[in-house]
Amino acid sequence: MLCQLGELDDAENGASLAELVNTRRAVLTGGAERGLLELGLDAWGVASEEEADLQLSSFAAAATLSPMDRAQALLMSDTTQRQAFAQEALAQQQSLLAGLLMAAGAPDVDEASR
């Protein structure tokens, strides 16, 4: 997997995974307080609300990837595989960005957050 950064001009850039999941849940449910299974998401092939939540989380994580990685993740039918792929791609992005910051002379991110 070649590390490419995601879309930097994306309106959701910088959003947490929880925010991404909530945004997508609101779109899918029309803002109503109901579970994903109530929507008839049979296409997802899930049997419980927990499985639907994990599926939604994996798609939300994939949304933060570069276009090529996002396409690859969206073609994966296995939720666990898609989640692991997204986590690995995001870790590579973080490593790349940390290296760029170090090269630019920025303070260590871990030390600055203390």
Record the SSE blueprint:
Elements (H helix, E strand, L loop, with lengths): L16 H13 L19 H14 L4 H8 L4 H25 L5 H4 L2
Short description:
By secondary structure, the chain is an all-alpha fold. The chain is built from five helices and no strands. 56% of the residues lie in helices and 0% in strands.
List keywords for this structure.
0% strand, 114 residues, mainly alpha
Description:
This protein has 114 residues and is mainly alpha-helical. The chain has one domain (17-112). It contains five helices and no strands. The chain has helices spanning 17-29, 49-62, 67-74, 79-103, 109-112. α2 runs parallel beside α4 (79-103) and α3 (67-74) runs antiparallel to α4 (79-103). The model has no long low-confidence stretch (mean pLDDT 79).
Structural class category: mainly alpha
Beta-strand content estimate: under 5%
Q: Which overall shape is indicated by the principal axes computed on the Cα atoms?
A: elongated
* Cα Rg: 16 Å
Number of structurally distinct domains: 1
Q: On the 0-100 scale, what is the average pLDDT?
A: 79
Uncertain regions: pLDDT < 50 for 5+ in a row? Answer: none
Name the helix and strand elements from N-terminus to C-terminus, one letter apiece: HHHHH
Q: Could you give the distance between the termini?
A: 32 Å
Largest sheet: none
